[in-house]
Specification:
By secondary structure, this protein is an alpha+beta fold. The chain is 42% helix and 28% strand. Helix 13 runs antiparallel to helix 14, helix 14 packs parallel to helix 19 and helix 17 runs antiparallel to helix 19.
Length: 603
């Protein structure tokens, strides 16, 4: 018989047939391919063709030639280069059908090196991963545990478990109840399971395990359950610790009295707590659709992004700044922001943790205190100025009256001189009365401070004052420009506000520059959140502030020789403004014009 004629040549198993002289008389193509042999191997000695085969295979072939029907074994051969090869064989004696050629031997031979490596790796991995096997034979009513399964239960190698004992190792309560239910459902319904439960070992140690079971059914009846049993105690405890830590962190995050946010690298909010929502007036859903750039004051964004970039580059671990956010009503919220980077296992930033302390109340209190200090300082300065005026002016009037009285009562003087002295006495009395009247106006401003400030729409008030002096405006051909938002309302005393606007506008007209064709006055206002700034600008004569700046708001101070000037208007105006918690500043250049800026509290 030649290989070509063999009906077994294309068989899927690797085999060869040898005669009693151990010569190859047949083979399968699979055998040739498995050992990289050529087809001219026919008739050659089997062991000469494959000299690397183990000695044990020769012995098994000889046994078969002597009449033993079957022999099988596996063997590892270490080659000269140090590599190991595993062989698996089965040798069978074939019957001599024609009785002429003598006995023939079928040798099924495989190189199982890869299979054995996989098995060894599987065993090693099971040992490392602490995975054991188990099997319940419901027909024989036996339970088998592998070596590792016994190690996990901390029982000796000769321990013989049964199903009831196996279940009894599970911790009483949830774990035992759960496995009992799963085994019952597996037996009755063929359901698989994969659960993580606790056992109590024979030594009393509580260990987390992963138990997997897969029933085998025959004719709708469970005959066997096989599965694995893994020691997951270390991983499970670490997982539970991490979950507890995360739960604790989440609880701290959600219930913190300060605002907290998780922010992505692109600035988008990942999560925010209720304190932050309350501070900013947004719902959680609103904030999660925004990024921090959307709600940051533009003047604070540059420094925030600069520090964040340094954090990303590893130049710092965290940073803290005072900054401003816009709340849901676009009002400013002052905060202290602390930002820390959260990194993943590769050291890359996964997100940022922001802690936001709302200090708006403190900032407002500081501003109020600062305003009170400024007001107190201004009031003290006004009081000193007032005291100086009283001391100087009244003393001057008193000295003048005393001197004139001496003339009137001096009988040695001529009658005409004494008559002239009486006229002078009348004039001096009138002057004193006027001075006292002016001082009374100043005192009245101080007393009005105690009045409750009211909300005053600024634009209608300015328009009213301009209508009241329309004749003066028209007579002087003055060009008045108004740009005041309708929304601005200030806190003040109505009479004071009218007086302030009236005085500043009439001054702008009164001290016009005759050399200019048109007298221009621009009245504008801007909204600065908590305050409003009223600005009155003219193109009049202007004031030399280097020369007169410190005296500008003093009493009886005049600068242009106007015969109608009394030097009390700006003094009274300044006192009225400061009594309402505001302030006034001036910018001016001779021949160019003057700008008065009045800062007022908003309603």
């Amino acid at each position: 018989m030649t290989p070509v004629e063999s009906v077994f040549q294309d068989a899927s198993i690797p085999f060869t047939i040898i005669n009693q002289e151990q010569s190859i008389i047949d083979y399968s193509t699979q055998w040739l391919n498995s050992f990289n042999l050529d087809s001219d191997i026919m008739g050659k000695n089997f062991f000469e063709a494959m000299p690397q085969l183990p000695e044990e295979l020769k012995i098994d072939i000889n046994y078969c030639l002597e009449g033993i029907k079957t022999r099988s074994d596996s063997k590892r051969i270490v080659q000269k280069n140090g590599d190991s090869i595993w062989y698996d064989w089965k040798v069978s004696l074939l019957s001599d059908q024609d009785g002429n050629d003598g006995p023939k031997i079928l040798v099924i031979l495989e190189n199982i090196t890869h299979k054995r490596l996989e098995e060894e790796l599987l065993i090693k991995s099971q040992q490392v991963a602490r995975i054991g096997g188990w099997e319940v034979d419901l027909v024989k009513n036996t339970l088998y545990w592998s070596k590792i399964t016994k190690e996990i239960h901390e029982v000796p190698e000769d321990y013989l478990p049964d199903l009831a004992k196996g279940i009894s190792f599970y911790k009483e309560g949830y774990s035992r109840d759960t496995i009992s239910k799963l085994v019952k459902e597996g037996i009755e319904q063929g359901k698989k399971w994969d659960v993580e439960l606790q056992i109590v070992t024979s030594k009393g140690n509580v260990v987390w395990v992963r138990a997997i079971g897969e029933p085998e059914m025959l004719n709708d009846k469970c005959v066997r359950i096989v599965g694995t049993f893994q020691d997951i105690d270390g991983r499970k405890r670490a997982q539970l610790l991490l979950e507890n830590s995360r739960a604790s962190l989440k609880g701290t995050f959600d219930n913190s009295s300060i605002g907290m946010a998780l922010v992505a690298k692109n600035g988008k909010f990942i999560d925010v707590n209720s304190s932050l929502c309350e501070s900013l007036g947004y719902t959680k859903e609103n904030l999660l659709n925004l990024n921090f750039q959307d709600i940051t004051h533009p003047d604070d964004l540059e420094i925030d992004l600069k520090l964040l970039n340094e954090l990303v580059k590893g130049k710092r671990n965290s940073y803290q700044i005072e900054k401003r956010y816009f709340n849901n009503n676009r009002q400013l919220v002052y905060v202290i922001l602390t930002v820390t980077a959260e990194r993943n296992i590769d050291g890359e930033i996964s997100h940022f943790i922001s802690q936001i302390v709302d200090i708006s109340t403190r900032i407002k209190a500081e501003k109020k205190l600062k305003g009170l200090l400024e007001l107190t300082t201004n009031q003290n300065n006004s009081l000193m100025n007032f005291a100086h005026i009283v001391s100087h002016n009244l003393r001057s009037h008193a000295a003048n009256l005393t001197m004139i009285s001496d003339f009137v009562t001096d009988e040695s003087l001529a009658d005409d001189i004494r008559k002239d002295s009486l006229k002078l006495l009348t004039q001096a009395s009138q002057g004193l009365n006027e001075t006292i009247s002016h001082l009374n106006e100043v005192v009245q401003v101080k007393l009005e401070t105690d009045k409750k400030l009211k909300s005053i729409p600024l634009k209608p008030l300015v328009e009213k004052v301009l209508n009241d002096i329309r004749a003066v405006i028209d007579e002087n051909n003055a060009d008045i420009f108004i740009d005041i938002p309708d929304s601005i309302q200030v806190k003040g005393v109505l009479a004071y506000m009218e007086s302030i606007v009236l005085n500043l506008v009439t001054n702008a007209i009164k001290y016009k520059d005759q050399s200019k064709n048109t007298t221009k006055v621009a009245i504008t206002a801007t909204d600065n959140n908590e305050t409003a700034v009223l600005q009155i600008e003219d193109n009049g004569l202007g004031i030399d502030l280097d020369k007169y700046g410190e005296k500008l708001f003093g009493m009886y101070k005049t600068f242009h020789g106007n015969e109608d000037a009394r030097g009390i208007g700006l003094f009274i105006t300044k006192n009225q403004i400061e009594s309402m918690g505001g302030k006034i500043v001036v910018e001016s250049q001779p021949t160019i014009g003057t700008i008065f800026k009045v800062t007022l509290l908003k309603q």
